[in-house]
């Protein structure tokens, strides 16, 4: 195991601040994608929206994330992490406020699409920056915390949505959708002054600037001479789809898709799904809030296990047991309310493992030159399934019923377990350079096993 000042540095105040500021993107993602479910319960009736129109509104942000994530990844690899770290959030502020004034569903879909693009762009930007500064001991928990912040944002959305809904004002939904601008403004202010990644500066030949950042963050005795060279110094974006990197991209995209398709579908229409399971009115909304908290609990538990248990076994067990919970829900949709909530609780807690690894794996398995593009492409490709799933949920509920809908979700989740069994590598304890090296990671691959 090699050592270097970045991978083995002690945790500092700078690292903690960067982790908090970087996680603002997933907080906004959770907020934006969840608040629409609460707001739609009001404006869908006002505007007389069909199931198809509701599906388009719910899926538009996911389509935007699909487009924005890859664009953001390419831009951050080309122009750097620092400058884009605030620009994307400014776009979220502008488009969120614009939702307050929207007068028809078409413009609402367009604005939600643009917000999704800005949110999607932030993921590769923020995760690349955090990855390239964080010591190896804390890399898994810090990156995994991104997903935990997604659920914090989702929980905040349900609270804000319920408070505004109880005002009884017919335009409360407008305030709900515009409210995302408030945390976005705070995050932009906090991110000002964040330095550029020294690894990215080195990859662009800007060694003097890299040395300046290293001295500022890690001390006067640290320079680029202390950092190991990455195995593939001339890796291009084309390598994302070929050779060993192509296999890694396939694995990440497949497991990510299997993880978020059921989850995003449930989140966009949580009150509707719980109502279909015969939890009505306040019980459905209360159940949504409880499930959100349990998702957060699951992420926290997974953060505690990601270094102890390892990436690979955590991923396999997460898919297996959450898929079984959804399978039972699908087979017995008429079960007593307490059993239904218990099964949703199991799913919410156990799926946390696959959720946090969505940001750990893609940032660890690719070199600096294409890290942002890799994260962006994986996020984009996985959102194709998520957008389709979110669009089809209302149609599925009305067309085939809640039982078959939950069975489909279970099948997707269990497919994730099978794929992970044969494709998931183990990167626990490796330096960032070792993780990204094709030969090193291949030799570290364990034989297929869940333990």
From TrEMBL:
The residue ranges of the Major facilitator superfamily (MFS) profile domain are 18-428
Q: What is its main location?
A: membrane
* InterPro entries hit by this protein: MFS_dom (IPR020846), MFS_sugar_transport-like (IPR005828), MFS_trans_sf (IPR036259), Sugar_transporter_CS (IPR005829)
- Single GO term (MF): transmembrane transporter activity
Q: Which domain of life is it from?
A: Bacteria
Gene3D superfamilies given in the database record: MFS general substrate transporter like domains
Q: List GO terms (cellular component aspect).
A: plasma membrane
The UniProt transmembrane annotation reads 20-44, 56-76, 83-102, 108-130, 142-160, 172-194, 250-277, 283-307, 314-332, 338-361, 381-400, 406-424
What is this protein called in UniProt? Putative major facilitator superfamily transporter
Instruction: Please give the organism.
Output: Rhodococcus wratislaviensis NBRC 100605
